[in-house]
Structure formats: structure tokens, C-alpha cells
Amino acid sequence: AQVRVNAISPGYTMTDILKTVPQDLLDKFAAQTMLGRLAQPEEIAKSALFLASDDASYVTGHNLSVNGGMRL
């Protein structure tokens, strides 16, 4: 069997741990992204599902940045 190896590098994601962060700091994190917001966990999960799906059958050795354009 062929093995595909990929990774996901998520940006700031609204998980339970970020619920303890002050809103002004969350706003600063969001301002660092081109989309102006933080990711939702479902958005990161959908990226993982894509990489695991047949739609990505020829994708390997890739690091998918799911960060709302934070590093542009």
C-alpha cells in the first residue's frame, strides 16, 4: 500500500483554551490574519478530512497552512 504523508499547520483556532484569553488579545490575533478572524475547529477538521480523502490522492509531502493568511 502507498502511504501519503501530509501535515496541517493551523493558525489561531477558537478552542476551549482560547476562551481563557482576554478579548483584546484575541482581537490582536485575528488582526494578524488576512481574513480578520480566528479559525473554528471545524475548519481545521475539514482540512484534515480533505487530506485524508480520495480528493487528495496525489497529495503527499505537503504542509497545509490553515491560518487565514496569517503569514502573507
Order of helices and strands: EHHE
Rounded mean pLDDT score: 96
> How much is the radius of gyration in Å?
14 Å
From the N-terminal CA to the C-terminal CA, the straight-line distance is 37 Å
Strand content: 5-15%
Strand order of the largest sheet: 1-2
Largest sheet: 2 strands, parallel
Total number of helices? 2
Q: Based on Cα principal axes, name the global outline.
A: elongated
Number of domains: 1
- Enumerate the spans where pLDDT stays under 50 for 5 or more consecutive residues: none
Oligomerization category of the chains in this entry:
single chain
Structural class: alpha+beta
Which range best describes the helical content: under 10%, 10-25%, 25-40%, 40-55%, 55-70% or over 70%?
25-40%
- Number-wise, the strands total 2
Helix and strand arrangement:
Elements: E1 6-10, H1 23-31, H2 41-52, E2 62-66
Parallel strand pairs: 1-2
Give an account of the 3D structure.
The structure is a single chain. The protein is 29% helix and 14% strand. With 72 residues, the chain is of the alpha+beta class. The protein has one domain. Strands 1-2 form a two-stranded parallel ribbon. The model has no long low-confidence stretch (mean pLDDT 96).
Characteristic key phrases:
72 residues; two-stranded parallel sheet; alpha+beta
Question: What's this model, at a glance?
Answer:
The protein has 72 residues and is of the alpha+beta class.
